[in-house]
Amino acid sequence: MKAGFYQFAPSFGRKKENLDKVLSAVNDVDLDLLVLPEFFATGYQFISVEEVAELSEPVPKGYTTDFLSALSSEKGIYIAAGLAEAMGDRFYNSAVLMGPGGLVGVYRKTHLFSEEKLYFTPGDTGFRAWDTDIGCIGLMICFDWFFPESMRSLALLGADIVAHPSNLVLPYCPQAMPVRCLENRVYAVTANRTGTEDRKEHGEPLTFIGQSLIVSPEGKVLTRAREDEEVLSVVELEPEKARNKSLNMFNDIFKDRRPGSYGPLSKKTKK
Q1: Average pLDDT for 102-107
Q2: pTM across the whole model
Q3: What's the CA gap between 198 and 258, in Å, rounded?
Q4: Catalytic residue flag (residue 181)
Q5: Reported confidence tier of residue 138, pLDDT bands at 50, 70, 90
Q6: Which helix or strand (DSSP H or E) is residue 53 part of?
Q7: What is the mean pLDDT of residues 81-97?
Q8: Active-site residue identified among 85, 116, 142, 181
Q9: Which of 109, 116, 136, 197 is labelled catalytic?
Q10: Dihedral angle sign, alpha carbons of residues 271, 122, 219, 168
């Protein structure tokens, strides 16, 4: 199957403009799975609860999910994309997985980063993966990568491919994803954005690092974008490779796990 990311710089608050860019980018491209950045339709640097409320949408009956559903149906593809979700008086940093038949599932970000904590509620879905006709696809969002438990949870759920919508500003993720994929023997498609947002009257601007990448279960970088380029990159994946957790005739990374020895992982950190 063919999987790809679209790396670009969304314009803050200009949903139609951002969606039109996605539509133009994928118009003549042959692929099965497209991963778009975190908050790809709205931009990232919110500066008030009122702004979050204005730009967030219900899932699945919102402007952005309607667009994604129509695009998935028209092209017969799956799309993983990050968006601001409204649920009553709560707002979530969420990602949806759309398929040719409509919404497959939604994931709400577990590990909120920096000022996201001012505006969004920590996710309550837990990590999730869905069986599709192109493989089992799991979702995590941006800063989730920093916690090894995120990808391990998705791998244990059977994910062949981890779709990773992102707005990365820290420099570490592109170097870490090969290790995350190797230790779980899964593919990962990290779709980051580019550009700078400087919307706060007082405070540092945010510069996004680009470097979107696709990594194999062997930890090999199959494609990586530059820091500043707008690009849609597609590579061929073999999902069945992610189902083989064997390293040699004696070692299987899942069968060799010893959860009874990992007690501290479930305990709260002492203050």
Answers
A1: 98
A2: 0.96
A3: 47
A4: no
A5: very high
A6: helix 49-55
A7: 97
A8: 142
A9: 109
A10: negative
CA atoms within 13 A on the CB side of 67: 17
pLDDT band at 87 (very low <50, low <70, confident <90, very high): very high
106 membership: H or E segment, kind and range: strand 102-108
Quote the pLDDT of residue 204.
87
> Is 173 considered catalytic here?
no
109 catalytic per annotation: yes
Relative to beta strand 2-7, strand 33-35 is parallel
Tally of residues, the chain:
271
Q: 161 and 213 in contact (C-beta within 8 Å)?
A: no
Catalytic residue among 15, 21, 38, 173: 38
> What are the chain's domains?
2-266 (3.60.110.10)
- pLDDT tens-digit series, residues 30-65: 999 999 999 999 999 999 999 999 999 999 999 999
Kindly report the number of other CB atoms within 10 A of residue 60's CB atom.
17
H or E element at residue 23: helix 15-26
Distance separating alpha carbons of residues 66 and 72, to the nearest angstrom: 10
pLDDT at 207: 98
The Cα–Cα gap between 122 and 145 comes to 15
